[in-house]
Design brief:
It is a single chain. The protein is an alpha/beta fold. The protein has 14 helices and 11 strands. The strands form 2 sheets. A 7-stranded mixed sheet has the order 1-7-6-5-4-2-3, sandwiched between helices. Helix 8 links the parallel strand 2 and strand 3. It is globular and about 70 Å long. It binds pyridoxal-5'-phosphate. The site of pyridoxal-5'-phosphate has 14 residues, from helix 6.
Length: about 475
């Protein structure tokens, strides 16, 4: 008789062991106090570098490894869940999003085909449609979840190229009579360069247009560039406006961009990776005005919507184009439904149930709950600007999003020095960037746990940091 190796008791354990480990992990995570502002926002690089990672020659105890991992993560990263993290758009995730990850991991649905996981696919479509409607896109708009903003922007560019020249799908760039060109501003997210590389149109295809002195795309520079490219034999494809620049939360002139795109027959994309979350708020929604005219929109769920990492959204009014772009026929897939199956409508094939994170959060907080979240961030940044103005700081960007680009009072050390002093305090994380070419201190509130006391603390840290 053949003897079969038994089921592995740690990889595929029984119920009792699962419960024991879930409880142990729960206790470990409860012990992490970062969200209440304890501990350092900065990683302990020395300790992380020395962390002894196990070889895989002998199996280790799961409980012990879990403890090591949680301990190391408490020390070994910039702590985006710490309320002193005034950083890039990496949020402290919403609690429902965390739970959604646990659920998705447990059932592990394969959602690339509707018939394999109809509930999960319907949940994602529901979230996407509700957001599309709130953006003001037509009722029959749709889209899908992506790994992030970069994939969503990549999808937009693929759709734009395919609509412009359907033969691009089969013949690639050779289908175009000249260099295809996409238009963004100098302040746009430079994932566009990598995207152009991936599209095969080359990085030179990206026109990084001048801004108007306030961080917005200069609409007349856009028109001039399209005219000049056309004259030179290039092929304008797409205008990609940014609604909420990464540096400064500035919104390009969406209506003017839409007018120009329409006049020249170009695809109009709005990259609202971070700022798109303002759509939840009745008072702040007008900041995005013009977005409803877009052919497609990018919004990250893992930025201001505070989903866990690896969750973006691509929304479009031209759903048919998705299948035209991502069509493929295989024998081994259970179906090939252009109207329902994600693998024939998007970049990814196998897919995680990412949309549950936003579904659970929206279902339990409602638009109102998210409005409270974004309005609180904006109010906290307003408070910070006001407090720092008393110390002589100037805010350079005009934004109704929760980010400030600040110039220290005359006689202060360079921004780089100020930033490194703040980081050395381990109580806050801020960054340096440039706004309209001037070095500025960038402070952003994306963490729902950040409160007035954290803003006050940052102000006092900055007061010491500019003392020479
Ligand atoms: C963050 C960001 C991106 C890139 O999104 P990822 O989710 O990091 O891939 C693109 N555009 C803007 C405006 C962004 O802020």
């Amino acid at each position: 008789m053949t003897t079969f190796p038994p089921r592995h008791e740690v990889l595929f354990p029984d119920t009792e062991y699962r419960e024991q480990m879930e409880q142990a992990l729960g206790a470990l995570l409860r012990g992490v106090q970062l969200r209440s502002g304890a501990g350092s926002v900065m990683p302990n690089l020395a300790a992380s570098r020395c962390a002894a990672l196990p070889s895989f020659d002998a199996p280790a105890d799961l409980g012990a490894v879990l403890e090591t991992v949680v301990t190391q993560m408490t020390e070994g990263q910039v702590q985006t869940t710490h309320p002193g993290y005034f950083g890039l758009f990496n949020p402290a995730p919403t609690f429902p999003a965390e739970l959604a990850d646990r659920i998705a991991a447990s059932f592990n649905p394969q959602i690339c085909v509707w018939t394999h996981a109809p509930f999960a696919v319907d949940v994602e479509n529901h979230v996407i449609r509700e957001i599309a409607v709130r953006l003001g896109l037509p009722a029959d708009s749709g889209g899908h979840f992506t790994s992030g903003g970069s994939e969503a922007n990549y999808t937009a560019a693929l759709c734009a190229l395919t609509r412009h020249t359907p033969a691009y799908g089969d013949d690639g760039v050779f289908a175009f009579p000249g260099q295809p060109v996409i238009y963004v501003s100098r302040e746009s997210h430079l994932a566009w360069l990598k995207i152009a590389h991936q599209l095969g149109i080359g990085r030179q295809a990206v026109r990084q247009l001048a801004t108007d002195g306030a961080g917005r795309m200069d609409a007349s520079a856009l028109r001039d560039a399209i005219e000049a490219d056309t004259t030179a034999g290039a092929v304008p494809i797409m205008v990609a406006a940014t609604a909420g620049t990464t540096n400064a939360g500035v919104v390009d002139p969406l209506d003017a961009c839409a007018d120009i795109a329409r006049q020249y027959g170009l695809w109009f994309h709005v990259d609202a990776a971070w700022g798109g979350a303002l759509v939840v708020s009745d008072t702040l929604r007008p900041v995005l005005d013009g977005i409803q005219r877009a052919d497609s929109v990018t919004i990250d769920a893992h930025k201001w919507f505070a989903a866990t990492m690896g969750a973006g959204m691509f929304l479009t009014r031209d759903l048919g184009l998705l299948n035209q772009t991502f069509r493929v026929a295989t024998d081994y897939m259970p179906s090939n439904d252009a109207g329902a199956d994600l693998y024939v409508n998007s970049v990814q094939w196998s897919r995680r149930f990412v949309g549950l994170r936003l579904f659970l959060a929206l279902a339990t907080a409602g638009w109102q709950g998210f409005a409270q979240h974004v309005e609180r961030g904006v109010a906290l940044v307003d408070l910070l600007i006001e407090r720092l103005a008393e110390d002589g700081w100037q805010c350079r960007n005009t934004s109704r999003m929760a980010v400030a680009c600040l110039v220290p009072p005359a006689g202060s050390p360079a921004v780089t020095t100020i930033v490194s002093r703040v980081l050395a305090s381990c109580s806050a994380w801020v960054s340096e960037t440039r706004f309209e070419r001037e070095p500025v201190l960038r402070v952003c509130v994306t963490n729902g746990y950040t409160g007035t006391e954290d803003v006050e603390r940052l102000c006092s840290v900055l007061r010491s940091a500019i003392a020479t």
